Amino acid sequence: MSKQLVLLMMMMVTISVTPAIQCMELRAGNWGVSVKSEKETVTNLQFYFHDTLSGQNPSAIQVAQPLDKNKSTLTMFGSIMMADDPLTETSDPKSKLVGRAQGLYGSSCQREIGLLMALSFSFTDGPYNGSSFALMGKNSAMSPVREMPIVGGTGLFRMARGYALAHTVWFDPTTGDATVGYNVTLVH
Fold first, then answer.
1. Which pTM does this prediction carry?
2. Which of these, 33, 5, 35, 4, lies nearest to 21 by C-alpha position?
3. Which of 64, 78, 124, 132 is most open to solvent, judged by the fewest CB atoms within 10 Å of its CB?
4. H/E stretch holding 21
5. Cβ contact 103:120 at 8 Å
6. What's CA 73's distance to the chain center, in Å?
7. pLDDT tens track for 19-40
């Protein structure tokens, strides 16, 4: 066969398969759905982030602190935490594990409790298994709802952009442990 004929056949196969892929819908139980249009896919995810600083097996630990701790006691300005937090389907920490949030966050504000979040949300369940997205932005932790940008992704979320809305479901001021609901919209 000539090179032109092989190339033509490959193009015809690609064109015939493409429309089937462009109208695909993925479901992940009650916590995610993707609808792919002809150009882009919009995915909405709802899950819960469990940040545990206390106990025998914390999911986040302090890796840096300010030199003068007395100057930043209220906002913890200068403190940096490393996290490997579980993501679950419901606010119950014993509910189905759907992934992990891994990375760091630090207190970046002197006059409010504000965190700079740099986390990779990696999924281990359903059709999103092996895919992740990156969140990078300010989290004004005392606001009822916080919006943070999504700046990229891998796997099914490759080239993702979008936003995450976070709201605190539960917080223990003594330990710093928290459960935060995330509603994430991704365009990829």
1. 0.80
2. 35
3. 64
4. helix 3-22
5. yes
6. 29
7. 444 455 667 777 888 777 778 9
Q: What is the dihedral of CA 113, 117, 122, 125, to 10 degrees?
A: 20
User: For residues 32 and 26, what is the distance between their CA atoms, to the nearest angstrom?
Assistant: 8
Q: Residues 24, 84: contact at Cβ < 8 Å? A: no
Cα distance between residue 35 and residue 40, in whole Å: 9
Residue 13: what pLDDT? 39
Q: Over the range 80-97, which residues count as b (16 or more CB within 10 Å of their CB) and which as e?
A: bbebebbbbbbeeeeeeb
Span 1-22, pLDDT tens digits: 454 444 344 444 344 434 444 4
CA distances to 4, 16, 24 from 9, rounded to whole Å, are: 9, 11, 24
DSSP state of 122: E
Neighbours of 78 (CB within 10 A): 17
Average pLDDT over residues 153-174: 97
Alpha carbons 118 and 21: distance in angstroms, whole number: 32
Classify strands 25-28 and 41-51 as parallel, antiparallel or unpaired. Answer: unpaired
Percent helix, strand and coil across the chain, each to the nearest 5: 15, 50, 35
- N-term to C-term CA, the chain: 38
Q: Identify which of 137, 166, 168 has the alpha carbon closest to the alpha carbon of residue 152.
A: 137
